[in-house]
Amino acid sequence: MTALGRPRLHLRATTSTNDRARALAQGGAPHGTLVTAGEQHAGRGRQGRTWSAPPGRALLLSLVLRDPPALLPLAAGLAVAEVAGSASVVKWPNDVLIEGRKVAGILAEGRPDEGWAVLGIGINVALRVDELPPELHDTAGTLGLEPAELEPILERLLDALERTLALETSALLEAYRARDALRGHEVAWSGGRGTAAGIDGAGRLVVELADGGRTALSAGEVHLLR
């Protein structure tokens, strides 16, 4: 397979790197095709949210992946956490946090029936939190590096993704569990609340309920209750 990051399309500004990568994937772009941008005006996050970052301060990228693994979101979250450093943890399925603040967002989109996915990643590498919209000041974080570190971080991320995407499921889940931000904490979601009890063999979030039962969440938004 083509190594991740080749070929590469870099854009000074775009609406969304995922939009450009999807168009390339639909046009037959090979596995590993990379789209990066210095700025994006309509970046998307999970649950329909936007992804905001000042120009030249965040790593903004999307990868075309052929025959992606079933646990792509978890593999991506683990790779980003490795690059973010030893203090980083992953809030299921793939929000990367440092000291409770979100430093990276990940959005996987694709067409399983056609055998491809687009993996979008945004990492706050060199921004200051006060440069973000006011509503993000209490929740967003940053790696606190300089803009010159964007390319080195990209190279490290591509290397980490090569490794995590190649992991067997058991090894991936073991590494992911070591960075699980939710285990043992009270969480809430649209269907209820309970105590997070880890990740099962299918990558689902297991939650212990107040009545003694358990449930496993395969998708959706989970909130960590302080």
Key phrases:
22% helix, alpha+beta, five-stranded antiparallel sheet, single chain, 226 residues
Strand order within the widest sheet? Answer: 1-2-3-7-6-5-4
Helix content: 10-25%
Q: Major sheet, described briefly?
A: 7 strands, mixed
Beta-strand portion reads: 25-35%
Shape: globular
Structural class: alpha+beta
Series of H and E elements: EHEEHEEEEHHEEEEE
Total strand segments: 12
The radius of gyration over CA amounts to: 17 Å
Number of helices: 4
Unreliable runs, pLDDT <50, ≥5 residues?
A: none
Distance between the termini: 44 Å
**What is the mean pLDDT?**
91
Protein model, in words:
This protein is α+β, with helices and mostly antiparallel strands. The chain has four helices and twelve strands, in the order βαββαββββααβββββ. Helix 2 packs across helix 3 and helix 2 packs across helix 4. The longest helix has 17 residues. It is globular and about 55 Å long. The model has no long low-confidence stretch (mean pLDDT 91).
Write the layout of secondary structure elements.
Blueprint: E1 8-11, H1 17-26, E2 34-37, E3 59-66, H2 72-84, E4 88-91, E5 95-98, E6 101-111, E7 116-123, H3 150-166, H4 169-177, E8 186-189, E9 192-199, E10 205-208, E11 214-217, E12 223-224
Parallel strand pairs: 1-2
Antiparallel strand pairs: 2-3, 3-7, 4-5, 5-6, 6-7, 8-9, 8-12, 9-10, 10-11
What does this entry show, briefly?
The chain is built from four helices and twelve strands; from the N terminus they run E-H-E-E-H-E-E-E-E-H-H-E-E-E-E-E. It has helices at 17-26, 72-84, 150-166, 169-177, and strands spanning 8-11, 34-37, 59-66, 88-91, 95-98, 101-111, 116-123, 186-189, 192-199, 205-208, 214-217, 223-224. Helix 1 (17-26) links the parallel strand 1 and strand 2.
